[in-house]
Automatic annotation (TrEMBL):
This is NAD(P)H-dependent oxidoreductase. InterPro entries: Flavoprotein-like_sf, FMN_Rdtase-like_dom, NAD(P)H-dep_FMN_reductase. Keywords: Flavoprotein, FMN, Oxidoreductase. Pfam families: FMN_red. It comes from Halobacillus naozhouensis. It is an enzyme of class 1 (oxidoreductase). The keyword Metal-binding does not apply. It comes from the Bacteria. GO terms for molecular function: oxidoreductase activity. Its EC number is 1.-.-.-. The keyword Flavoprotein applies. Residues 1-146 form the NADPH-dependent FMN reductase-like domain.
Length: 196
C-alpha cells in the first residue's frame, strides 16, 4: 500500500506541512508495512495546466502526476487563501488524469489564521474529491494558527484528530483493497427529447 501526503503550500516548514506530516506519521505507525511518502509542492517546479494529456507533461510535473496516480491513499493539506485552496494545489487537481483518484481514500487537512475558513473542507475539497470519484475520509481536520506555539503543533485535540485521519486512511484503503467487489459508478441516464 502506498500512502501519499501532499502539502499544498509552497512555503517550506508551513503549518500545513507540519499537519500533513503528523497525519502521515500516524498512517505509517498504524500500518508499518505501508510505503509512506510526503510531498511538498514548494519542492516541485510544476508546469501550469494547459489542457494537454497528462501523460505528455515532463520533469517535476510528470513526477508529481506519477506519484499521485501510483498512490493508494492520499492525505492532502492546503492553507486557506481567499476562502479557497491554494492555486498551486488547484493546479495539481487540473493536471492529474480524471481517473487517478477513483476508488482511493482521501483525507483532507486545511490550515488557516481564522476560524472563518473551516468550511473549506466541506464546501470545496470534499466536492472536488467526489468529482474524482474518491472515497472521502470523514473527519477532515481544520488547523488554526492558535493550535501552534513557536512553530510547534501543541493542541492535543488537533493532534488526536490528525492521528485518527492518518489511521483511517490506511484502514479504509486496506478494507477497499481486500474486498472482492468492484464499486459500480452510477450511470447518468440520458433524457429523451420530445418533439412537439
Amino acid at each position: 500500500m502506498k500512502v501519499l501526503g501532499l502539502s499544498g503550500s509552497v512555503t517550506l516548514s508551513s503549518k500545513t506541512w507540519i499537519s500533513v506530516k503528523r497525519a502521515i506519521e500516524a498512517a505509517k505507525k498504524a500500518m508499518p508495512e505501508a510505503e509512506a511518502k510526503l510531498v511538498h509542492l514548494g519542492e516541485y517546479d510544476t508546469t501550469l495546466c494547459d489542457g494537454r494529456d497528462p501523460s505528455l507533461y515532463e520533469d517535476d510535473t510528470k513526477a508529481l502526476i506519477d506519484l499521485i496516480v501510483e498512490a493508494d491513499a492520499l492525505i492532502i493539506g492546503t492553507p486557506v487563501y481567499r476562502a479557497s485552496l491554494t492555486g498551486a494545489l488547484k493546479n495539481v487537481f487540473d493536471l492529474i488524469p480524471n481517473d487517478s483518484l477513483r476508488g482511493k481514500a482521501i483525507g483532507f487537512i486545511a490550515t488557516g489564521g481564522s476560524y472563518h475558513h473551516y468550511l473549506v473542507i466541506d464546501h470545496q475539497l470534499n466536492p472536488l474529491a467526489n468529482y474524482f470519484r474518491a472515497h472521502v475520509i470523514p473527519g477532515g481536520v481544520y488547523v488554526h494558527n492558535g493550535h501552534f506555539s513557536e512553530g510547534e503543533l501543541v493542541d492535543e485535540d488537533v493532534q488526536s484528530r490528525l492521528r485518527k485521519l492518518g489511521e483511517a486512511a490506511v484502514q479504509l484503503t486496506d478494507h477497499l483493497q481486500n474486498k472482492d467487489f468492484e464499486i459500480q459508478q452510477p450511470s447518468i441516464p440520458r433524457r429523451k427529447l420530445h418533439q412537439t
